[in-house]
Amino acid sequence: MNLFDVYPLFDINPVKAQGSWLWCDKGEKYLDLYGGHAVISIGHSHPQYVNALTKQLSNIGFYSNSVQNKLQEELAEKLGVISGYTDYNLFLCNSGAEANENALKIASFVTGRRKIIAFHKAFHGRTSGAVAATDNPKIVAPFNAEHNITFVPLNDEKAFDQAMDESVAAVIIEGIQGVGGIQLPTSSFLQFIEKKCKQHNAMLILDEIQSGYGRTGKFFAHQVANIRPHLITTAKGMGNGFPIGSVLIHPDIKPWSGMLGTTFGGNYLACTAAIAVLDVIEKEKLMDNASTVGSYLLEKLGQINGLFDIRGKGLMIGIDLPDDKKTVRTNLLKTHKIFTGEAKPNTIRLLPSLTLTKTEADIFLQALEIEVA
Ligand SMILES: Cc1ncc(COP(=O)(O)O)c(C=O)c1O
After folding, report:
1. Number of domains within the chain
2. Residue 291's domain spans which residues?
3. Model pLDDT for residues 206-231, shown as the tens digit of each residue
4. Are 163 and 254 contained in the same domain?
5. How far is it, in rounded angstroms, from Cα 269 to Cα 92?
């Protein structure tokens, strides 16, 4: 059997990883500034994470959500404290798309409404409602397109106001748009949409799947705007590679038995991974590191000639390159052995582990300077 061929692949076969570094089967070493798409939060193969998972696997790996699971409670408690959302409730699932699908569903259940407002360049995943709320017609099948979604430009209060009405179940917005090329909502725009959601009894969903988990220096990117969304979705960095996602749910939203459900969500291994991630983020002060090394990168990038625009916060950075520099990302990988992400049309996306050091950042800065010269 062949693999269903949906991914354009680099000809690299990683066999080992440690911190911000990967080694391929040919023994070559790569600096990882992509984190497997913002997933590696505490660094590859962190010893505390490896030990916790190994130990848990030898005790019990899986049972269903029909029995007590103290690890889920421990995770909810720790996530509440570190994020500042101690009074919210937690629903655990397996991926980002699933987290958004559940958040959209909760909003629709609670309001009894169908319409969703999303934003130009948004990416929310590939399941039914999540992909419908994603601004990319190429990945929306006719089956998904039946949802009632209105897209408005980011940071455009007037357009948002025109789209908002009493039929809106939810507004879904990324803390910082990732796939869209690191586009930041302004704090005043976030405050505006929060106010409008309250006025129209609609729910505000903050998709923090890429921008959350300490990446921007705050636990969630939206916290810079002092807003409190009804629903917050997480995944990616939450398990440092072990699949896990979640929805943080405002205490006013009441569950009923059977409202949501999942077979694998919140299993022992996923919870163990997620607890280890939070413990390491706290112990190693990784949010502070993301903020410090992120600011350092932004400052140094600003001194490099030949870059169009540089945007971002903490360790979520977008670098726009001129049209005649289409090969920079490939050259960084092939010549300098540095993994980065991309966004269309010609943006480099940095989504490294929150453990990235200034010395590692310098390796990238020197390589980039050579490539854009
Ligand atoms: C902001 C955002 N939301 C949702 C998703 C979907 O997450 P997953 O691929 O885990 O379903 C992604 C993935 O890139 C994302 O960046």
Report:
1. 2
2. 285-349+363-373
3. 999 999 999 999 999 999 999 999 99
4. yes
5. 13
